[in-house]
Each structure stands twice: as structure tokens, then as C-alpha cells.
Amino acid sequence: MIARMLEVTALTKSYGDVRVFANVTLRVDAGEYVVLVGESGVGKSTLLNCIAGLDDADAGEVLFRGRSIGALDADARARWRREHLGFVFQAFHVLPHLSVADNVALPLLLLQRPDDARVALMLDRVGLGTMGARFPAQLSGGQLQRVALARALVHRPALILADEPTGNLDPVQAGRTLDLLAASPNWLDPGVTIKVPRVRVYGLMVHSLGTVWSSRALGRQARRLRARIRP
Ligand code: ADP
Ligand code: MG
């Protein structure tokens, strides 16, 4: 049997005495696109960090293609993230001393796969084709968010975790970003266009490359997740 792309089972997390979430269970197949919607403070960012192995859950398990992320040591986790994960941080985490193009190029450099053409394509896709030489301080919040998105997708990760990737964008830019995330599996085949419903995205977007996702699955998953994560 082919392992699922991502399998989160009974994940539980507290900070001290404060329970953030309990028993979060979620499955994502290749090509599926999952959106988690929840109010501020319900634990969306914490859940993403736990899935990415950036934070440790207290109980439960995260499997990526059948492999437990929690069982990896720190080095192996870092290598796993570098190779397979694209993470769009809520606070961007763009490096201030690197140009926009160098920020986007970073995941490829860490993998020792520099590819200037790919970086230029990514900047173009997020509407920043003329801004590669600028520094982050010279960009607006919405532009920084798009740099973060280009950086998360540049190395074609199998799994994309995006934390409020449209939070700083106007509705038009937000729509473009969702299109970009949904269409990224098809970038090798530019003839294919996938339309994304214009949902407001508050939290988790888990996007795994592979077969074409269905918007019905998206709605169902979002509801399922919302039911599970509410305290
Ligand atoms: P969301 O992303 O849904 O807005 P968060 O995951 O950021 O929510 O936070 C969930 C809860 O955990 C909040 O009550 C927040 O105050 C708390 N929290 C988040 N990070 C920490 C931390 N490092 N230490 C203690 N509490 C935290
Ligand atoms: Mg958050």
C-alpha cells in the first residue's frame, strides 16, 4: 500500500498548563489541498509548527509518507524540511541582509541545486519579477508575503505548509496566491489551470503535490478540521 502524504494522529499540545489542542487527527493524500479555518489563538500556527517538527507535540504522531517525523533527530528533521517541505511563515521570516532573489534562492542553495532561471520564474509568478535586486526593507508587507511564498515553492517541495499566506494581501493578490498554491503541481505543465475557490484563509494550508485535488475535498477537510480543533 502506498503511504499517505501526511498522516497526523491524535496530536496533542500544551504550553505549561494551557492545552492548545488535543487529539488532532488529519490525513492528506498526494494532490489534496487542505485548509484549516479557525479563530485567532485556537492553535493553527502551533499545529503547523508541530507538523513541521519545529515544535514538539506532547503526544501523537506525524507521519510523512509513512515515516515518523518525531522519531528523527534534529539533524535529520532539518534535512527532511530542506528536501520535502515548503513553509510559509505567518511572520514571513525573510532574511533582511539578503536581496529578494537571494532569499528565494536560499532553499536551492541549501540543497546544492542553484538554479537562477527557477528563481526568476518564481519571482515572476508572484508578481515580483522586477524586484529581485531589492532588499526586504524596501518591500511592502504584501510583497514580503509573496517573497515568502516564492521561497516556499522554489524547490518544488512535496508538502507545503502555509500559515495565513493571504493574511497581508488585498483580495486580488489573495486570489492570485491561492491560484499559485493550487496550480504549483502543474507548473511543469503550464497548459493546466486550476481554479481555487475564493475562500478566506485563516490558517493551515496543507498542500501536497501529486494528482489534481478536488475543491469538494477542500471544503470537507476544512469542516472536519474545524470541528476537531475547536477547544
Ligand atoms: P493561532 O495561530 O490559531 O492564532 P497559535 O498557535 O499562535 O494560534 O496559539 C495558540 C495558543 O497557544 C494561544 O493561546 C497562544 O497564546 C499560545 N501560545 C502560542 N505559542 C506559545 C508559546 N511559545 N508559549 C506559550 N504559549 C503559546
Ligand atoms: Mg497563527
Low-pLDDT ranges:
185-204, 206-231
**Quick one: biggest sheet?**
4 strands, antiparallel
Task: Calculate the terminal CA-CA distance, rounded to whole Å.
Answer: 34 Å
Shape: globular
Overall average pLDDT: 76
Extended strand count: 8
CATH architecture assignment: 3-Layer(aba) Sandwich
What's the number of structural domains?
A: 1
**What is the structural class?**
alpha+beta
- Helicity range of the residues? 25-40%
Radius of gyration: 17 Å
* Small ligands present: adenosine-5'-diphosphate, magnesium ion
Taken as a percent bin, the fraction of beta residues is 15-25%
CATH topology: Rossmann fold
Order of helices and strands: EEEHEEHEHHHEHEH
> Could you name the CATH class?
Alpha Beta
Name of the CATH superfamily:
P-loop containing nucleotide triphosphate hydrolases
Structure keywords:
7 helices; 4-stranded antiparallel sheet; 8 strands; single chain; Rossmann fold; binds adenosine-5'-diphosphate; disordered C terminus; binds magnesium ion; about 230 residues; about 20% strand; alpha+beta; 4-stranded mixed sheet
